[in-house]
Amino acid sequence: MSEISRDDVAHLARLARLSLSEEELNEYAAQIDGIVDHVAAIGEVDTANVEPLSHPTQNTVMREDVVIPTLTAEQALDQAPAQDKQRFQVPQILAD
Fold it and tell me: Is Ligase included in the keywords of this UniProt record (predicted)?
């Protein structure tokens, strides 16, 4: 256990200019202690034989792209209150 104390949390709260009650100090000390323990446990994982990835999805199998029918411009604009050049026309909200 990392043993983050209530005094450590009180010190951090003072630095951050937070006003915390005694109950909050005790609660946050336990929560922060748990977080630090979880991070320490992750640091203990043996990654010596793990190849680094250039991207998180480098080894992810993805499905093939499949073209499927979609709406035509006419179908999409069928119920539009206003349209212009095959686009939805909306009121301007920003100045030029």
Answer: yes
Half-sphere exposure in the Cβ direction for 83 (13 Å, CA): 11
Helices (H), the chain: 6-15, 22-43, 73-77
Phi, psi (rounded to 5 degrees) for 49: -100, 20
Pair 29, 10: CB distance under 8 Å = no
Contact present, 88 and 82 (Cβ < 8 Å) = yes
Q: Which residues contact 90 (CB under 8 A, 6 or more apart)?
A: 82
Taken as a whole, the chain contains a residue count of 96
Model confidence pLDDT, tens digit, residues 46-85: 989 988 877 777 667 778 999 999 999 999 999 999 999 9
